[in-house]
Design a protein that fits this description.
Blueprint lengths: L1 H55 L4 E10 L2 H4 L7 H5 L3 H12 L6 H8 L7 H10 L7 E7 L2 H7 L9 H4 L3 H13 L2 E5 L1 H5 L12 H32 L4 H13 L4 H15 L7 H25 L3 H9 L4 H29 L3 H5 L20 H9 L5 H31 L4
Antiparallel strand pairs: 1-2, 1-3
């Protein structure tokens, strides 16, 4: 009997040991797969952002050419009347060409001079125009002016185009390369902070293109979106959670709100195109229309987040206020709402972050237009950062590749700031029960 019991005990121990080994092996495999999945995700994210940063970091520095410009009155204002119309339409490009010829007198011949002129951005004359129109006393004087180099020169200086590459690939002739080397040696060609990228609107010339117009458009659009969606969403959440009767009508509203949160964003763009532009005749490509569309897009998110914040307030707060004689409105406004407000703000900012990344609904209302001027108001033509990224990614010039990545970096910084604000508000005002 004892031997039989011992054998049975040993067999049981062997079976238990095998079972434990299988279980431990299964747990190890499961954990390994989890670690592998997380690692692959992290590597993919770092690879994506690493590629974007590697391509876009160079755009924040630009090659500039410094020349001594003679504001020749015979070219700018031959009649001497200093009329604003005459100053605005003068041939300022001729002043830049004259400065280049003066700096490189050994470059002769029409073809060689044309190659020399191509080293400076074709849009640099706008700086002279603005300076003279703002200060006509510059006429007849000499002053140094720093202007962007052409995008081909910029890519060459940054090493994005090889010196020994074929002429067709580097897009610079041997003579132009020699002049660029002379400019660099003389300190005429230098690398500086890219003021055009941070201070200009869009442009067909890569070296003149900037994100300021899209950034201002995003700020105007999101600012008005927040002013519209937050109070409406909070008011709707308070009514549904605190005052509305529980019946089929309110159940239908709740179901529709939850369904609207999953509607594709382009549907809201079609709605804005049909209603705000087609029916009410509002201006296309304007921040006011974009904000109305994004308000419709973010309202379900704000309402759902606000209702969750209201539900998180303990019932004892309501019961205590009502027991002290407060009305239901006083209870909600003086006790429940202040405690739920941090969660509401966090949900609203997350909704704004989602709205900032949307481009499809804004494409439908015309915010894909080519906008050169920086918008100053809600009715001015504008675009936003996601749409600007879309526009630049479709252009053939190689220099726009870096600008596309640079615009993505600006967009990501904007999103990080908004999310960091949400985390700060949550940690600063959140109450734990």
């Amino acid at each position: 009997m004892n031997s039989t019991a011992n054998r049975t005990s040993k067999q049981t121990q062997v079976l238990v040991a095998r079972s434990l080994r299988r279980r431990y092996r299964s747990e190890f495999i499961f954990r390994a797969l989890g670690v592998l999945a997380v690692s692959l995700g992290v590597l993919a994210v770092f690879g994506l952002f690493g590629k974007i940063i590697a391509d876009g970091a160079s755009v924040f520095r630009q090659s500039y050419v410094t020349l001594e410009i003679y504001y020749d009155p015979e070219i700018i204002d031959p009649e001497g009347g200093r009329a604003p119309e005459a100053l605005a339409t003068a041939d300022y490009q001729a002043l830049i060409k004259a400065a280049l010829r003066e700096k490189f007198p050994d470059v002769e011949g029409r073809a060689n001079l044309r190659e020399l002129y191509q080293l400076v951005s074709s849009g640099s004359f706008l700086s002279l125009q603005r300076a003279v129109v703002a200060n006509p006393s510059l006429i007849g004087t000499r002053a140094q002016l720093t202007m962007p180099a052409d995008d081909t020169v910029d890519m060459f200086v940054k090493g994005q185009v090889g010196r020994n590459a074929p002429v067709a690939e580097r897009r610079l002739t041997d003579q132009q390369v020699a002049v660029v080397d002379r400019m660099t040696a003389a300190g005429i060609l230098t690398m500086q902070l890219n003021r055009e990228f941070l201070g200009n609107g869009d442009s067909r010339d890569p070296e003149q293109a900037g994100v300021r117009g899209a950034l201002m458009g995003s700020l105007l659009t999101l600012g008005l979106t927040l002013l519209l969606s937050f109070p409406i969403g909070v008011a709707a959440a308070i009514y549904l959670e605190e005052f509305a009767a529980r019946n089929r009508f309110t159940d239908l509203i709740e179901i529709n709100i939850n369904n609207l949160a999953a509607v594709p964003s382009i549907v809201y763009g079609l709605l804005g195109l049909a209603v705000f532009i087609g029916l009410f005749g509002m201006p296309r490509s304007a921040p006011v229309v974009g904000s109305l569309v994004l308000t419709l897009l973010t309202l379900p998110t704000v309402i759902i987040a606000s209702r969750s914040a209201l539900k998180a307030v303990p019932p004892s707060i309501r019961e205590a206020a009502l027991g002290m004689g407060a009305s239901q409105v006083q209870t909600v406004m003086h006790h429940v709402l202040p405690l739920a407000l941090p969660g509401m703000l966090t949900g609203a900012i997350i909704g704004m972050a989602r709205a900032l990344g949307e481009s499809a609904p804004l494409l439908m209302i015309g915010m894909v237009a080519f906008i050169v001027d920086v918008p100053q108001g809600l009715t001015d033509a504008a675009t936003v950062l996601p749409v600007q990224v879309f526009l630049w990614s479709d252009l053939p010039e190689r220099a726009f590749i870096a600008r596309t990545s640079g615009a993505i970096i600006v967009l990501l910084v904007f999103l990080v700031v908004m999310n960091a604000t949400a985390v700060y508000l949550r940690n600063r005002f959140e109450k734990r029960w």
